[in-house]
Amino acid sequence: MSRNFEAVIGLEVHAQLKTKSKIFCADSTQFDAGDNENTSPVSVGMPGTLPALNERVVEQAIKAGLALNCHIRPVSIFARKNYFYPDLPKGYQISQYDKPICENGSVEFKLQGKAHQIRIERAHLEEDAGKSTHFGDYTLLNYNRAGIPLLEIVSGPDLRSPAEAAEYAKALRQILRYLDVCDGNLEEGSLRCDCNISVRLRGETKLGTKVEIKNINSFRFIEKSLEYEIERQIEAVERGEKIIQETRLWDPDKNKTFSMRTKEDAQDYRYFPDPDLLPVIVTKEALEKFKKEIPELPLARSRRFTEELGLSENDADAIVSEREIADYFESASRMCGNFKATANWIMTEVLRELNESKLSIIQSRITAENLGALIKLIDAGTISGKIAKTIFSEMWTSEDSPEKIIKTKGLVQISDSSAIEKLIDEVLAANTSQVAEFRSGKTKLFGFFVGAAMKASKGQANPDLVNEILQKKLKGGL
After folding, report:
1. pLDDT of residue 263
2. Strand ranges in 209-302 using DSSP code E only, listed in sequence order
3. Which of 56, 192, 387, 447 has its CA at a distance of 20 to 30 angstroms from the CA of residue 280?
4. Given 1.10.10.410, 1.10.540.10, 3.10.20.30, 3.40.50.10160, which CATH number is that of 417-474?
5. What is the pTM of this model?
């Protein structure tokens, strides 16, 4: 932060919960439906219609709250948040206000190897609004999104830098995806963020005037928009201007924020309990059931991989980045017992092929069991690392097991010392001048002989034995 100012940042992350139907009616949540296809009298706010709460939405919200270390309210209330906007058909949004389902939690994550912990003030349920698309003098309204279930996760004003804010948002996405309650698809708007930002002189405790940057759907844009807004506010304060509480939008093409509207306060929304919805009651028995369904979360899993399996911190963090990758790693490493080699193969060969083919790990053409079997064959000395890469490529194309490929292609490693010795004799006999040069002191030629021997064996000779026998032969020992 420049010029003795510090930023105070809080994020409101809107996560679309992973349900097949909307929060208060049976309309589909399918993203790629035609305009206004996923609508009904309830979701477009027709007079006389009544909401009916989707139980699955409540279950997913509770699981998310538990994973975010929140207190789960035994009784929470839905409220009406009143404001006018063309894509809000009822003229109000059903949300939660003073009695949210989740509150007082925290998220821990790492940034540049250092642990950070950010408070979660609340995580409440609400319905999404529709979508307006503006075309000069007219606007098109699509109500497919109206009524989509959202969990709004509100952090405390604990973040102090754009990089920290982006990393916090990434940690939230990772946790929600581990729970399988949100797909975290930023491009489709399944996860989007409002950034609240103010600046103050270092050492001050009073918060400055807060400005909100609305609807950011990229971690990079979170960082970029905050960087711009911090600088804009500092310059305004230095000029003696008063910061206005307002909502701004981020323009990624111009790399700047611009004013959208003055920011409303809670009283402007005229919250009151929704008379059509009963309180949400969470029993102790239900809470215990959901606690048992929470999987091992990324940070804990990464720590276990480093402390118990001996992976480096960087390798562990990369492996746990997605739950499916971590599951794949565990299945493959159980098969072969070599944790570090499994991590290396996944991060280099498997992820490279997946990226090139634009596939996810669950679509991998090489199963975790087959990868583990391949590593086990290397460790047993049945095949060399070089042969393994040839087999890996064949596995990716054919989807066959490594054992079947070895059998059909004849790719077993040659570990018979007499066979290798015979092969090396032929190599040395064909390169007598190089042998003389080596023995006269040009020891760098050793690599030439290794390469020639491996080529003669079509890469199947045991490289350790090749090195050992060559050393003896060239020094006149055999």
Report:
1. 62
2. 211-216, 246-251, 256-262, 272-273, 280-281
3. 192
4. 1.10.10.410
5. 0.86
